[in-house]
């Protein structure tokens, strides 16, 4: 290739913009539009009594089945690690009684939503993308549109509501398991006193922290359903296309959920700072 045949720097930058950032922004815009359409249609369907409750129950049971056990397996070591690391640091300054505060701040406010987001993005997001991607490849989605059935309201809407419900339930489950694991490790393995643990937890944790965790989890479920539904409905290229859709859904969901968690946590900490009592 001669010097004249080589692309200029401006051309290279333009090609990179068209291939990556521009395409990502276009995809994000289409996902936002699809999310708005699904949510509006979901509300109208519930108000008008046309919501597919059977599909909602079936999808909710499936999501709980694929995510409950992995969530418990992940939640236990998270609680133990938090208790172990915090107790090691706190013992050096003679403040063992504040280990319970780490549960209120670490597990309830951050650990539970983060574990839930990982499980939702990995288990639920992949299941939604694989199911809708397979239907798209088999041209079932096109057949539904031909018959006048909106796939967003028939398929994505029930999955979105089910994902929100299951995410919230999983978050509560993680809070309970994380609290029990941390309490058990601190009292029985580390030799701490139950009273100091519970008192520190009560002093630093509040009902607002739990409500924030539930809110974030429900939002995570909605975002995952929208992202996974979008990639599933836009799968192309046979079985390999379904695999690519699942991979894209899981990766994007995880990145988006982590980013949203940081933003919400910072806003909450600025508005409602942690305080004793």
From TrEMBL:
Pfam families according to UniProt: MlaE (PF02405)
Gene Ontology MF terms in the entry: phospholipid transporter activity
Keyword Cell cycle: no
Top-rank taxon, per record: Bacteria
Transmembrane segments: 68-90, 110-130, 160-186, 210-233, 245-268
This protein's GO CC annotations: ATP-binding cassette (ABC) transporter complex
InterPro entries xrefs: Permease_MalE
Keywords: Membrane, Transmembrane, Transmembrane helix
Matches recorded under PANTHER family: ABC TRANSPORTER PERMEASE PROTEIN-RELATED, PROTEIN TRIGALACTOSYLDIACYLGLYCEROL 1, CHLOROPLASTIC
Protein name per its UniProtKB record: Putative YrbE family protein
């Amino acid at each position: 290739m001669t010097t004249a045949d080589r692309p200029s720097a401006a051309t290279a930058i333009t090609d990179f913009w068209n291939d990556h950032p521009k395409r990502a922004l276009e995809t994000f815009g289409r996902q936002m539009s699809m999310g708005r359409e699904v949510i509006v249609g979901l509300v109208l369907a519930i108000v008008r009594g046309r919501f597919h409750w059977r599909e909602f129950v079936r999808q909710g049971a499936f999501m709980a089945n694929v995510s409950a056990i992995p969530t418990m397996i992940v939640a236990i070591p998270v609680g133990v690690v938090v208790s172990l690391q915090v107790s090691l640091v706190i013992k050096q300054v003679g403040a063992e009684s504040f280990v319970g505060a780490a549960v209120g701040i670490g597990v309830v406010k951050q650990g539970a939503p983060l574990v839930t987001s990982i499980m939702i993005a990995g288990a639920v997001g992949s299941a939604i993308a694989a199911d809708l991607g397979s239907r798209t490849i088999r041209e079932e989605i096109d057949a539904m549109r031909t018959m006048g059935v909106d796939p967003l309201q028939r398929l994505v809407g029930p999955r979105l509501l089910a994902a929100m419900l299951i995410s919230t339930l999983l978050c509560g489950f993680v809070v309970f398991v994380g609290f029990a694991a941390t309490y058990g490790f601190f009292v029985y393995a580390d030799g701490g006193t139950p009273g100091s643990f519970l008192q520190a937890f009560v002093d630093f944790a509040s009902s607002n922290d739990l409500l924030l965790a539930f809110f974030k989890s429900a939002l995570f479920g909605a975002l995952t359903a929208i992202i996974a539904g979008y990639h599933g409905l836009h799968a192309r290229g046979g079985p390999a296309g379904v695999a690519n859709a699942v991979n894209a859904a899981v990766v994007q969901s995880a990145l988006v959920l982590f980013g949203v968690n940081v933003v919400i946590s910072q806003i909450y900490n600025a508005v409602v700072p942690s305080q004793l009592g």
